[in-house]
Write a structure and sequence with these properties.
With 248 residues, the chain is an alpha/beta fold. Helices cover 38% and strands 16% of the residues. It has one domain: Rossmann fold, CATH 3.40.50.720. One of its GO terms (molecular function) is tRNA threonylcarbamoyladenosine dehydratase.
Length: 248
């Protein structure tokens, strides 16, 4: 007899009610690189029932050191479509919307306002679109967890989830805070960040053709761990797992 309860072990740990909450949840993930690709996979494997993923980028060879779906066979392919195909192969019943483009500010505001997500996972690595998404979440009172910079960091033990106003040793968070203050926004925003010392000598300047003036070196496990923490924050926010009684 075929046995199809693929969430059995999740149910054993967090209970049927919490599994049902995840099945009935609706999540938006923007950015499907090193952090977002892992966050998406962890959430789908936890049983999230409805997911919208957005990214307009395509895989290139430099993505292979850290991005879940970056393979020789996917180079040049759109990230959103490839990640989406993988997610459907994990859970064929998931309600999945794939947005294969970079979202303009008006589109971000419209999607967040109209879709009524239970949670937003912000894995964008550019300042301005990241600010637009955070502000859209704040103005619609949608829960959000935002990934800060995983580049230039090595120590996995120094990754934390906290209010953005309590971050330290994170240049990316410092820039986000500066922009929020400029717009007179002081709301609590949950972020994943590392307080590890930045490896400044890993910085590389670019010609700006890839929308970035510079970037830091990365190691395989750090973006994945950021994605793990983002997914865990969402799961904790949707379920009652903190109230689960521990055995005596």
């Amino acid at each position: 007899m075929e046995y199809n309860n693929w969430l059995e072990r999740t149910e054993l740990l967090i209970g049927d009610e919490n599994v049902d909450k995840l099945k009935n949840s609706k999540i938006l993930i923007v950015g499907l690189g090193g952090v977002g690709s892992f966050a998406a996979e962890f959430l789908v494997r936890a049983g999230v029932g409805s997911l919208t993923i957005a990214d307009g980028d395509r895989f290139d060879p430099t993505n292979k050191n850290r991005q879940l779906s970056a393979l020789d066979s996917t180079i040049g392919e759109p990230k959103a479509s490839i990640v989406g195909k993988r997610l459907k192969d994990i859970n064929k019943d998931i309600q999945l919307e794939i947005i294969d483009k970079f979202l303009e500010p008006e589109e971000t505001n419209s999607i967040v306002r109209n879709e009524k997500f239970d949670y937003i996972v912000d894995c964008i690595d550019s300042i301005t679109p990241k600010i637009n998404l955070i502000k859209a979440a704040i103005f619609t009172k949608t829960k959000i967890v935002s990934s800060m910079g995983a580049g230039g960091k090595l120590d996995p033990a120094k990754i934390k989830t906290a209010s953005i106003w309590k971050t330290r040793q994170c240049n990316f968070a410092r820039q986000i805070k500066k922009r929020l203050k400029k717009d007179d926004i002081y709301k609590n925003v949950r972020v994943v960040y590392s307080y590890d010392e930045l490896k400044k000598d890993s910085l590389k300047l670019t010609d700006g053709s890839n929308y970035k003036k510079s970037f830091y070196g990365t190691i395989s496990y750090m973006p994945a761990l950021f994605g793990l923490h983002c997914a865990a924050e969402v799961i904790r926010g949707i379920t009652d797992i903190y109230s689960i009684k521990k055995p005596n």
